Queue: 3 jobs
Job 1
Amino acid sequence: MLKAAIVLMLLATLVSLFSGLVFLVKDEGRGSRVVNALTVRVGLTAITVALVAWGFYSGQLVSHVSW
């Protein structure tokens, strides 16, 4: 369940990234939609990092790195 939530948050971050690109090209930097897309993207990224941290803290995510 946690892994699915992390993947959904990453997909939402990508959608926000490309919507910001579309707004930047369409508005030519004059509108505030690019700033709003950046704000949403930063918020989604913060939630994703918090979910990953929670997963490692709770033991639902584990690292299998041998080094």
Job 2
Amino acid sequence: MNRRYLPETVAYVRITQQSLQLGKIEGEVKAAQYEWQFRWRFRQRRLSVEPSLGRALIQEPLERFLERSDYQLEAGSDYTFTVRTKM
């Protein structure tokens, strides 16, 4: 299947807390009608996402986004990334 015909949803990320010393980033992510809270422990590469409703749709793409960007993210800032699915 050609990638340009795959469905896409934009996910909006807001970083609410960050501690490089503790190795964590916390925030919110919204995509379509879903909203989640997340905690990224980047030294352990461990992501938790709540609530569980729709978590399977966002967890893997959010983890990839955070792995690419974790040291560049700042508390109070907003970011976006594309999820290759229709939510």
Job 3
Amino acid sequence: MSMIWQTKGWMKSMNLFEIDAEIMKCVDMETGEIIDTERLGQLQMDRDTKIENIACWIKNLASDAEALKAQKQVFADRQKIAENKAESLKQYLATALGGKKFSTDKVVVSFRKTSSVNVTDVSKLPEQYLKHVEPTADKTAIKAAIKAGTVIDGAEIVEGQSISIK
């Protein structure tokens, strides 16, 4: 007997919360006595099946994410190759044209003047022209120090729980 009920002509499977609620209905809350052992057993099997299916779904999604991540890297590599090739060909074309404009029905190549700053020695720059990076915490070192017994104001180790599905 599967935990599926029919509503308006379509079948709906119960979620974990609904299964847990039905399990609670199988127990007399005042006495703790099991009212319907057969239904309770079926609900517990349905709950285990639901948990297994969710865990398998998580595994599949994690696998899909890894495959997409790998494909993203492949595309990023291909993008970088194409960008580098385009830049190389721009330099080649610029050398070939020697700064002179070129035009056909399909393409127009022109040149414009640009300017940029080249910093030769950062240490000689006045303070007003320096960017200061905000400090960040070295969490690995802080964790090791706290575990070794050092008290560090402004930091604490927070225990959590991580689920592993294999």
